[in-house]
Design goal:
189 residues, alpha+beta, Immunoglobulin-like, seven-stranded antiparallel beta sheet
């Protein structure tokens, strides 16, 4: 074999060995991204709880809280409420909205120092509301308004550069939560 080839191969192998050794010394026992996303996938469920029921002049408002249980920023793409139904093909979905975001836009004055982020920070809890028009009637034989199903789609991100910019998508997660509200019943007439 050629001596030049052997020297070059040995040099490349030695360089790779030292690079791997340096990463091992620098990173020590830190979790790699693949392992951390596996942990996230297993533990990514947000905590969803029923908070309040408000009756206004022309609508009912059901308020829930959502808590981000991860170290990542979350973007809630969509969230829906559905009441338990006793008949097939008789389901109604109500889309939810962020109460803080709604208050921010209602009180927005155009000043440059006003800042709001629609994204949940790590371990942040925020309230969402579902509005139901008083024009809708719910037959108790068909709908059980004390048993709610909340379905959601969430994206997780590693970095937030500004109040409305996320970067480094880690994963997306969709799921649902069943809330049995027998302890705090409300009546939708």
């Amino acid at each position: 074999m050629n001596k030049k080839f052997i020297k070059t191969s040995f040099g490349i192998l030695t360089s790779v060995f030292f690079i791997v050794l340096a990463f091992k010394v620098i990173l020590k026992d830190k979790v790699l991204l693949i392992q951390s996303t596996d942990y996230l996938f297993e533990n990514a469920r947000p905590t969803i709880e029923y908070k309040d029921f408000e009756e206004k002049e022309d609508l009912y408002k059901i308020i829930i809280s959502i808590k981000n249980n991860t170290e990542y920023y979350t973007s809630i793409n969509e969230i829906f409420l559905q009441f338990e139904c006793k008949m097939p093909n008789s389901s109604l979905y109500f889309r939810g909205y962020d109460l803080e975001e709604r208050k921010f836009f209602e009180n927005y004055s155009g000043k440059s120092d006003e800042d709001f982020s629609p994204y949940l920070a790590p371990y942040e809890e925020r309230k969402y509301a579902f509005e139901i028009s008083k024009g809708l009637t719910f037959d108790e034989d068909v709908f059980d308004t004390n048993k709610m199903n909340i379905s959601y789609n969430i994206n997780y991100y590693k970095y937030r550069f500004s109040s409305n910019t996320l970067f480094g998508g880690v994963m997306s997660h969709g799921g649902g939560e069943h809330i049995d509200n027998q302890n705090k019943p409300f009546i939708i007439e």
